[in-house]
Structures are given as structure tokens and as C-alpha cells.
Amino acid sequence: MIGSVACRRQGRDLSWQFFKDKFVILSERYQSGFLLSRLVKSCCSDFLCEERAMEVEKFFTDHPLAGSERNVAQAVETIRLNTAWLNRDQGDMANFFKQN
């Protein structure tokens, strides 16, 4: 359910905040399991700014999660790639939609 909320623009911030607020419970319940690693990736990889990438990095530096290091790194990389893409093409996309 959390992943479904996270994949929608309106639920992105909500699911990330829920994950941070409930981190202790989630990490105890699903310790180093596939589900928790997947949840890490789905809760934070769709952000679109460098500030969020730094926030995710800091959170998992302060709250290490064994077995999820790769997913955290991939999520941060995805945030940065999406941010770069948006910064590069935002003007072109706006022009396209204005013209069509």
C-alpha cells in the first residue's frame, strides 16, 4: 500500500514522511528483507530536486539499514538523474505543451 501511494505525485511526500516516522517499526518488522529494501526504493526515488537527494542520503546515513545500501544509492542516483533531466528539458517541454 505504501508503494502504491508513493508512486503518485500527490502521495510522494506523504509516503516518505510516513516511512521516516515509522522507520523503527518498519525496520524491526522487516529487518533486512526484500520488502523493506523495495519500500526504501519506492518511497524516495521519485523526488525531483537535489535537496531531496541530500535529505535521503542524510536520513540513511543517520539511520543505516543493513542490506538496503544499494537501493538507497540507486534511489539517490535516480533522484539526481530525474532532477538533471527536468532542469535540462523543462523549457522545451513547456514550449511543446504551449504549442500543442
What would you note in describing this structure?
The protein has 100 residues and is mainly alpha-helical. It has one domain. It is built from six helices and no strands. It has helices at residues 2-6, 12-21, 23-29, 34-44, 50-62, 69-99. Helix 4 (34-44) runs parallel beside helix 6 and helix 5 runs antiparallel to helix 6.
Q: Count of helices?
A: 6
Uncertain residue segments: none
Q: Major β-sheet, in short?
A: none
Intertermini distance: 36 Å
The count of strands amounts to 0
Structural domain tally = 1
Q: What Rg, in angstroms, do the CA atoms define?
A: 15 Å
Structural classification: mainly alpha
Helix and strand topology:
Elements lengths: L1 H5 L5 H10 L1 H7 L4 H11 L5 H13 L6 H31 L1
Helix pairs in contact: 4-6, 5-6
How is this structure best summarized?
The protein has 100 residues and is mostly helical. It has six helices and no strands.
Descriptive labels:
100 residues
